[in-house]
Amino acid sequence: MVRLETGFTVGLQSVFTTLKHGGYSVESVFFSKEKKRELRMDTFVQEKLKDWNMEGLLEIFENEQIDKESFFLLDDAAIAALIPKIGLQVKFKKHLQLLHLELQPDKTQTDCPSRPPVDQQLEGNPMSEEEEPRFNIHEALRSSCDGSSILASLEQHSISLKQRRQLVRILVSHLVERFGENPSADCKTALAAALVAEFPCLKDTQGKGYEAWYIRGRRNRPATGFLEERLRNIRKKMRQERFSVQTASTANIEQHISSTLVIPDPTISTERALQLAEWLKNNMWPAKQVTDYMRETAIHRAHWIRSNGTKSIDEINNEFPRLLDTPSMISQDFSMLFPQHADKLFETWTISFREKILQLARQEKGAQDLLSTDNLPPEARGDVALRVLPLILPTPVYKDGKKMVKPSLDENMKSFIDYKHVGTNIVEYLGVAESTKPFPFILALGDNNQCSQAFVVIGKQALQHSTLLAAVDTCFKLFYIFDINFPKQCAAVWEFLQIVVYKLPGTESSSIRLLRGYLS
Question: Could you give the CA distance from residue 304 to residue 319 in angstroms, rounded to a whole number?
Answer without folding.
Answer: 10
